[in-house]
Fold each of these.
Amino acid sequence: MENEVMDLRQLAAYLERDVREVGKLADRGRLPGKKVGGEWRFSASEVNYWIETQLPELTESELAAIEQRGNYLTPDVEPLVYSLMSERTVAVPLRASTKASVLRELVSLAEGSWQVYDSDALLDAIVKREELLSTALAGGVAIPHPHRPLSPKAQGDAIVAYARTGSGIPFGAPDGGLTDVFFLVSCRGADMHLRVLARLSRMMLRPGFLDDLRSTETAAETLQIIDRAERELLES
């Protein structure tokens, strides 16, 4: 999917939108595409990146729709984010004080999943994604991740690592604020990648979730909060 090139109708089907609406967005420069022989062509990898950049602006229902796109037609009944984590992939607090050191430590945590086969490749991919646009969000949260899925030689199953620094650090947040809560996400497929990002975004919309994360002192407590928040989201 990542190397696929779509025409206008294929993109409309992929986004589950009316083809005329998608055509207008493309004509206005709102979608990452180019015309070849007078016809629109869109790179799947760039479209997925565009979807990522839209997530912070979406409503809870729009994020839920992202989760159910493609092959995921049956609503989840078990936590997704929590299932990709363990105490080995959580650090509270994280002893890092710069963006570079946070990224290195997050990759080290991800190695605790036993799904990282090439940590240098993962770190390089995450750094390059940050160079495109910071993954920091308003509210002191960042979700570092690769721009494209890693090869099977570099990573096995999907990974989520979590860390909270003792104080906020500059990470490129759009509101200029400091960042102290970090979720590293790395998935082998684009669909899973977007599902995890959408699920995290939905969880962050829940009142008190980030405050609860900031109040924890251990990895076990952190996982309990994530598990509870995700289950409450699925039950709502």
Amino acid sequence: MKKTITILLALTLALTLAGCGRSASSGNSFYAADKAAPAEATEEAYWEGDYVTNESVTSTAYGGMEAVPARREAKLIYTAELELETTAFDDAIAALDDLVAESKGYYEDRSVRQGGYRYGSFTVRVPAAEYDDFCRQAGEVCHLLYANSSAQDISDSYYDTDSRLQSARAKLARLQELLAKAENMQDIITIESAISDTQWQIDNLSGTLRDYDSLVDYSTVRIDLREVYQLSDAAQAPLTFGQKLANAFTSGLRSVGSALEDFAMWLAYSWVWLLVIAAAVVVVVRIVRRRGFRFRKKKKAAPEAAETSENK
């Protein structure tokens, strides 16, 4: 019986290696099918799966069955970055909240900095189907300064992980069959150890696929929202000298006003410390005056005395 179990273990290992090799070859056949695609097949038809990009190994040479086409869907992770500004910060926040709710998304991260002009940083997850509309409407809710969108293709990693997961599940099933037939304690321990390792591999691969699915199904949009006194003008007509001079004068007054506001805010935050420092200075001055401390100046030597010392 021990010899039989050993032979079965060897067969299991051989089948596992064969499954890995077959999954690798099927991954390469994707590229081969891509290169051999019909000339009339467009890129849109390719992504929509209108023609076969891969085939399962069920040809007539393996039992007389016909080849079954296996469509391969592209797995794309969409990410966008938006920089917005507004003169009505509270209204903009409310509009963004409504937009997230309408898009059936959620805030993955949300923070607002108070004090002076406010600033908000948001990470929004929206369904991939709502990604384009959400980015467009977010740029319309506030004044758009900067927008960047990117798509990461993880198709190869996704389907390679899925193939390894299927192989691991098949291996687990074979090991469980061997465990049911094992009678020797040493064989049972060896098979149970292999089952434990395989189960860990299945859990790890399943978690990776869940992460991939989350990133693919829900796109990520990072938004920076700033409160400003006046919106930045993306495009302006050429200005005359008088207009430039008036704008410079206005900007100078605005900067002075902003500096005075900052100084007033600083005084509001620091007035207690200023009082403490002023009181300390007054106390030190009074102590010095009571003790009659004076800074005495050195008397200049008489000219005659200076000449006598030089002659000596």
Amino acid sequence: MQKTTGRLILIPSFISPTNNVDSISAENLSYMKDIRYFIVEQVRTARRFLRKVGFDAPFNEVIFYELNKHTDPAQIANYLKPAISGNDMGLISEAGMPCIADPGSGVVKLAHEQSIRVIPLAGASSILMALIASGLNGQQFVFHGYLPIHTRERENKLREIERQSNAIQQTQIFMETPFRNNQLVRSIIKVCHPSTLLTIAADISDPEKEFIRTKSLAEWSSNIPDLHKRPAVFLMYTNK
């Protein structure tokens, strides 16, 4: 008889720290409650999320595997051993959906190679929420993830993104580490055309601080919001 493997459950987490259990579906909670193996970016925040949604198993009975920039790539394949042995596993992102601007996609690829069933649970994505609230083209869009850190490379990438949007009327979506948001906005205004539209979507789903606005760069240049340390998504569209 062929041995049955466990499943890899992709678990969306809160987008904003102010979100509560009401933003997680009952179906998602039913999957989580019986899992004892989790792949997470940071154990502390994963534990906080699980407790907040009502996960009540003692953590000394739960095994967490950390997957972040400090993880030895050679160890990642070992993370799926519980699933190969027949146990369900959960993959949790720091915020929002796993595997989007998130290191989890490599684990999912390995799961497919090991014939482990992958189950994506429904949840909020700051990227898609920003897109639908932007008023920009939702028929054609591309997500670039995080832009280059260094100023010259970042400005060159922004010029490339603007050209791409103008050529095929495609919405361009990207992000930045929150403490560099203000520098990014200044770079966009500096190198892109004043008529180019920019959506700034910050603190998405936070009932107190959520900020989503679409304006031309000419309009933004006279009233740049302070985005320092605020999680944000940026969308650009031009049709000059």
